[in-house]
Every structure is written in C-alpha cells, then in structure tokens.
Amino acid sequence: MSESALAALSGGIAASTLLIGAAIAYFVRVPKSVVAAIMAFGAGVLISALAFELVQEANDAGGLVPTISGFLAGAGLFVLADWLLSRAGGKGRKRPEGTGGGTSSGAAIAVGALIDGVPESIVLGLSVTGSGGGLSLPIIVAIAISNIPEGLSSTSGMKADGHQAGYIFGVWGSIAAASTIAALLGYLLFADAGDGPIAFVTTVAAGGILAMVSNTMIPEAFERDKVLTGLFATVGFLTAFALHELGG
Question: Which one of 65, 129, 153, 176 is separated from 198 by 20 to 30 angstroms, measured CA to CA?
C-alpha cells in the first residue's frame, strides 16, 4: 500500500470512532460517569502521545526553534478558534444535555469537531513520513480513543436538541470523511518538506491538540466526575507511554 493511502487510512481509522461513539450514544443511554471516564482516559492518552510521539520527535528532527514556535502557534490558533465558536453558540457542544441552540447546535458541533479533528488528522498524515512509511500505532490509538467520548457526548447533546438519526450520523460521517481527507493532505503537502518545516507543522497540530484537551476534554470530564478524572487521565497517559515503549 502506498504511503498516501496509509495516511488516508490512518485518518479514516481514527475518525471512525466518532461514528462508533455516536452510535453508542444514540442507541444506548450511557451514564455521564462512563463518558467522563473515557474522556479523561482519552485526554491522558493524547497528552502522552504528544509528548513522546510528536513534540520530542519533532525536536529531534527539526530542532528547538520550529518545535517551540509551532507548538505555541498551534495552541494560540486553537484557543482563538474555540473562543470564536463559543461566541457563536458552540460553547456547550460536547455536553450531553445539549447546547440549547436547536437547529444551530448541529452546525456548532460540526464546526467544533472539525476544529478539534483537523490538527489530529494532519498529525496522522505526517506520522506516516515519520514512521518509515508505516502507520504510527500509538498516535492512531490515542486519537481514536479520544474521539469516542466526543462522539458520545456531542451526539447526546444533539439528541437533546431534537436532531434525528439521519442528521446526526450525516454530521459525523461528513466529519469522518473530512478528517480522512485532512490526513491525506497532511501527507501530500508536507511529505517532501524538510525536517524544520515538518517539525513546525507537526507541533502546530500538537499545540492545537493540547489546547483542545485543556479547554474541552479535561474540564468536561472533571465537571461530571470530580473524583476519578485525574486517575483515569493518568492511566491513559501510561497506556500510551507503554505503547510508545513497546513500539520503539
């Protein structure tokens, strides 16, 4: 299989768990504590993958300056986009009780998921170049796990706002397709770039992911379970770290 096909495949695999989470939430009443546990676990997994699979490798290959500048730029871009979306009515897009926005809530959730997911997908595409033309299992697992609670929580919110199955799964199917395309574009646009530019782009995406984890995943998980959030995040971190060590 070609590297470009692997890049698209990695994006598709990770994004498919959005649909899995959506299906679970639509057909099964999932306790908020379970959603919180998965979200906290996914946050820990993502933080570990960022540290050991993305930022460290970007620094080793491209140097400290593009790594730091890219990471700060990515975090700043996500915070700005998240703030603008919140002002437009998407502040509660991951809450199972809904946004209270009716028809507009689906658009807010879709845009929010794209803001969350595009950096992740670009990382997946770039990871093919950094893993010798293969799939980077720790990064795929990290993003796939983190997508499950997003699908769960946001779908519960869309149901609460009165959206039907066709609309809900159409939204998530479109986001999964967009994520697959973003992973492919991440590979095609930067596969032949030098180490410095790849390090910068990788850490722009990584900074956006860390800002997303800090702004949305951990606060939402803690809001629902103030006792075990830290423990589940720790277990997630160690799980991704073990995958990194075993894969290395």
Answer: 176
